[in-house]
Amino acid sequence: MPDLLIDHIDGVAVLTLNRPETMNALSGALARELDAAVTACINDDAVRAILITGNGRGFCAGGDMAEKLPTDPGKSVLETWYHPMVRNLRNCPLPIVAAVNGVAAGAGMSLALLADIVTCAPNAFFLQAFSKVGLVADCGSSWLLARRVGEARARELTLLAERLPAEQALDWGLVNRIFPADDLFEESLGLAKQLAQGPVNALSRIRQLYNSAAVLDFESQLLEEDRLQIACSSGPESQEGRDAFRNKRAPDFTRIPLARTETK
């Protein structure tokens, strides 16, 4: 069986980590498969949203500690194997839902943090496990986590390496919704389908705005909002939305593909 299962359901690409015997530990090969799958999704007009989940009892237990990976000349293991996937997910123009069905530890927690919407089962938990093995946070989590839950909580989670259970993750704002374990996939898929039915270019630009807000000052962010609003206002999705409003019908955005020529 492949390490990554790929299904297409009503405009949603479902990417399932498929190493259940290791709690879906993120091997170098799996990281590259996920990176390639995200690129394929971006280039496929039929894909309008992405859902990432895990097979078995875990979402992703982090990097595969049993591996000894070779590196490209002058590069680290992270730069050779993992950072391309992290950057691709971060910069992906498509909305991403992560359905966390169990443990999300280390790089697996980073994977969840890279999603726009995070759902989880009641038994799921999140763990910044790095310090337990004498390592620092990686795969972007030192940047992503503080922006999701605040610096004080991010420092606590990373320094103490304590489990963050589902209900607390919801209370802290790391998780958007908790669903019963048996319903997690279908409910999360429903959210991803809802995104897939939406205006993919506007959703892509919304994703851009929240990414840029983390690094721009207020005035610069206003200008970025203006730039992207101009692009939306002159585009076919806005025209479809206004026409639907005038004619008292539901808009149909699904026939309008993602524009891939826009400069990010």
Please characterize this protein's 3D structure.
- By secondary structure, the chain is α/β, with parallel strands linked by helices.
- The protein has 2 domains: 4-196, 2-enoyl-CoA Hydratase, Chain A, domain 1 (Alpha-Beta Complex); 200-246.
- 44% of the residues lie in helices and 14% in strands.
- The protein is built from 10 helices and 9 strands.
- The chain has helices spanning 28-42, 77-91, 107-113, 141-149, 151-160, 166-172, 184-196, 200-213, 218-233, 236-246; strands at residues 4-9, 12-17, 49-54, 96-100, 103-105, 117-120, 125-127, 164-165, 177-178.
- Helix 1 runs parallel beside helix 2.
- The longest helix is centred in the C-terminal third of the chain and has 16 residues, at 218-233.
Report a brief summary of the structure:
This protein is of the alpha/beta class.
Give the arrangement of secondary structure elements.
Layout: E1 4-9, E2 12-17, H1 28-42, E3 49-54, H2 77-91, E4 96-100, E5 103-105, H3 107-113, E6 117-120, E7 125-127, H4 141-149, H5 151-160, E8 164-165, H6 166-172, E9 177-178, H7 184-196, H8 200-213, H9 218-233, H10 236-246
Parallel strand pairs: 2-3, 3-4, 4-6, 5-7, 6-9
Antiparallel strand pairs: 1-2, 7-8
Helix pairs in contact: 1-2, 3-4, 4-5, 8-9
Q: Number of DSSP strands?
A: 9
Order of helices and strands: EEHEHEEHEEHHEHEHHHH
Q: Give the tally of structural domains.
A: 2
User: Mind telling me the CATH class of the largest domain?
Assistant: Alpha Beta
Mean pLDDT: 96
State the distance separating the first and last CA atoms. 37 Å
CATH topology of the largest domain: 2-enoyl-CoA Hydratase, Chain A, domain 1
* Rg, nearest Å: 19 Å
Binned, the helix content reads: 40-55%
Strand content: 5-15%
What's the story with the biggest beta sheet?
A: 6 strands, mixed
Oligomerization state: single chain
Biggest sheet: strand arrangement: 1-2-3-4-6-9
